[in-house]
Amino acid sequence: EAGVAQSPRYKIIEKRQSVAFWCNPISGHATLYWYQQILGQGPKLLIQFQNNGVVDDSQLPKDRFSAERLKGVDSTLKIQPAKLEDSAVYLCASSPGTSGGVGDEQFFGPGTRLTVL
Amino acid sequence: AQSVTQPDIHITVSEGASLELRCNYSYGATPYLFWYVQSPGQGLQLLLKYFSGDTLVQGIKGFEAEFKRSQSSFNLRKPSVHWSDAAEYFCAVGARDNQGGKLIFGQGTELSVKP
To answer: Looking at CA atoms only, how far is residue A13 from chain B in angstroms?
Structure first.
């Protein structure tokens, strides 16, 4: 079974530029998560999708971050414009979502390491 | 609000020695509890999880964890550490109510293994 795929693996941009990350979850998984992991910290949830609907985006900085999950499969996370403090690893995870994700094991992708100069 | 504290930022143990990584949580009821491991450049891999029942949970790679409600703790243990266990370990809590499976992670404990 293929795992969660993410691209690119690394990205370096200058502040005020825009950037986009892509995630392909495990086939059949209804729930998709985007986490931000700043160096030295644990992952923090940015947004959760159930199929193509948003369940939780309370910690997404909506003035600069956006995310979508078209057709309930792949997802993209965009930052525009980027700030220095956005330097982090962006992790995508998916879970079966049979109970809306509650109690599910989440399967994580390798992440995208973003450096903002 | 839910929170997770991992008091030890970095731990070093000798290969073959026993290991205990501490995790304390704050939650109004009994949460779902997880331990994940992250190797350099890799995503997080689930080691074990506690939902209910037996408070001693067995996981992969010889790890176990014990849920202690009175202490709000979920410490991870391994009787004999291997060099390949060197990685970052994250404790996480998940709500049992209708919050969609959101996980709150601790800040992580980095494990180094001495030969």
So the answer is: 20
Nearest C-alpha neighbor of A101 from the set A36, A13, A25, A38: A25
- A30-45 pLDDT, tens digit per residue, is 999 999 999 989 999 9
Within an 8 Å CB–CB cutoff, is residue B101 touching chain A? yes
**Contact between residue A26 and residue A1 where contact means Cβ atoms under 8 Å apart:** yes
Chain A hits for B42, CB-CB cut-off 8 Å, are 110
Is the CB of residue B103 less than 8 Å from the CB of residue B31?
no
Residue to test with chain A: of B5, B102, B104, most A Cβ within 10 A: B102
For residue A17, give the amino acid letter.
Q
Residue type, B13: V
Among candidates B33, B34, B19, B15, which has minimal Cα distance to B77?
A: B19
Q: What contacts A55, CB < 8 A, 6 or more positions away?
A: A31, A48, A49, A100, A101, B100
CA-nearest of B68, B105, B112 to B90 is: B105
Q: How do residues B7-41 score in pLDDT, each as one tens digit?
A: 999 999 999 999 999 999 998 777 899 999 999 87
